[in-house]
Design goal:
By secondary structure, the protein is an all-beta fold. It is built from no helices and 18 strands. The chain has an 18-stranded parallel sheet that branches.
Length: 209
């Protein structure tokens, strides 16, 4: 989902898209169940998203997008936002049984994750890398990252010394693990199963140097 492109880095966002009340499965045959490299002022509601080998829902360059009451399961990454995906609300959703990270935030500003269940993912529940103004509030975390105790992880950008990323975490419930942080410069592959490492040339946005 995107409008005409001005080059791979900055597609012209498609606006006012509404996707709701669907089961969308890549059936382990496609990188994404829903791929939206450029989108704005749009809503994703009450979706069952599964089976993607890269990310169930991928949201790139754009702003003012809303994800509500969706379930992400059986993907490599449940939800991936990247490339200046700004002003994202992810609320009342379930991230469960993905083989890697539940929600991977790679860049962007003003991202709110609230009222979600994030449980039983192979990697950390949430990874934040290079984003500004992230709020994680009133979520339930359990048994992520193979019960190894990393429920959510923040990593500062490897090569960016010009910004001051901020993440605020409040009122979360964590069971069978501990909220923990790693502020190194590796990407999330450090925490996923080795057989699922994501050096995927077809999705450069998931690669960090």
């Amino acid at each position: 989902l995107s409008g005409p492109t001005e080059g791979a880095a900055a597609p012209i966002p498609m606006e006012n898209v509404y996707v709701a009340d669907l089961e969308v499965s890549a059936n382990a045959m496609a990188n994404f169940s829903i791929f939206a490299p450029g989108i704005a002022r749009s809503r994703f509601e009450r979706l069952e998203i599964s089976g993607a080998t890269t990310a169930g829902l991928s949201i790139g360059y754009g702003w003012c997008n809303y994800v509500e009451a969706c379930r992400f399961s059986g993907n490599e990454i449940g939800l991936h936002t990247y490339n200046s995906a700004n002003n994202i609300d992810v609320v009342d959703s379930i991230f469960e049984g993905n083989t890697g990270v539940g929600y991977y935030i790679s860049g962007g500003a003003q991202i709110n994750v609230e009222g979600c269940v994030i449980e039983g993912n192979g990697g950390p529940g949430i990874v934040v890398m290079g984003a500004i103004g992230v709020q994680v509030a009133s979520n339930y975390f359990e048994a992520n990252n193979g019960y190894q105790g990393r429920e959510y992880v923040y990593m500062r950008p490897a090569l960016d010394n010009t910004t001051a990323p901020v993440i605020k975490i409040t009122s979360d419930i964590v069971l069978n693990g501990a909220p923990s942080f790693h502020d190194g410069n590796s990407d999330y592959k450090h925490w996923v199963r080795p057989s699922r490492a994501m050096a995927n040339a077809s999705c450069p946005s998931l690669q960090h140097t």
